[in-house]
Amino acid sequence: MPEHADNRLQRLKTSLNSGRAARESAGVAHELSQPITVTRRIAVLGIRGGSGKSTVAALLVSAYATHRGDRVLAVDADPDLGSLGLRLGASSPTSLSGLGKVPRVWSTLDEAERCLGRSQSGAWVLSGERGSAAPEVVPPNAYLGVVHGISRYFAVTVIDAGAGMVTPLNQSVLADAHSIVLATPASVDGVVSARRALEWIREWGPHRLPQTLVALTAMSPQAAAIDLNRTAEAFAPFGVVPALLPYDRHLATGSTIEPWRLGERTRNSAVQLAAAALAKSRALP
């Protein structure tokens, strides 16, 4: 019996979509694997508490560690009991604030590695203080001294900064980063907050907007239905295209992220965001 025309059309559409997805995937993988001659620092900031920034930072770290053949470093610079180490399942012998108290020089990679933990994906981790009733805020100069001293041994460094834009530490993180990822909930309020953050960046350092991305994190299954076209219109005046990280039951547990337990859409979205952040970071000297 001859194949129905509708069936042939559907098979053609499926084939075209599969081919397009394969080409996009190949392009993303190519961008992620591009050689890096000078370390790239990518900062992830939460516009407010509960924005999913540590989750975004951990997904970026895992993507780089998985798809690149060189060394990747994760730094927890959140003074409010940051959870990057928890999300990556690794902790370091000392914290960022601990290293910042006594200026030092790491003469070799072996010396630097003694201060770091190692995640399941193979990334090195400099975790923040946990379990302290009054965590210390790292002075900006101490932060820069530690990060510059240790990140030179790594191709990509992802910094999980604290919430908010105006703290002295976060401004140092922003000024020093090669690209910036702003994490915000995938909601109307989250979009409004992100616009305000972009307005602040435009006033503070308009030259940083081309290196800035917005990651909308879906906190519930319903949030995944956000209209990305309308959201893109809200960010168009800043030249920023938003990325959506869909709701994922594994991420929602708040525990250590095991990449093989993530949904396919989540994995693909995280890899695309990682490629975009790296591409923007490469635009700076």
From TrEMBL:
Lineage of the organism: Bacteria, Bacillati, Actinomycetota, Actinomycetes, Cryptosporangiales
Protein name, per record: MinD/ParA family protein
Classification via InterPro entries: CobQ/CobB/MinD/ParA_Nub-bd_dom (IPR002586), P-loop_NTPase (IPR027417), ParA/MinD_ATPase (IPR050625)
Pfam families named among the record's database cross-references: CbiA
Gene Ontology BP terms: negative regulation of cell division
Domain of life of the organism encoding this protein: Bacteria
CobQ/CobB/MinD/ParA nucleotide binding domain segment(s): 42-81
GO CC annotation: cytoplasmic side of plasma membrane; cytosol
GO molecular function: ATP binding; ATP hydrolysis activity
Coiled-coil portions: none
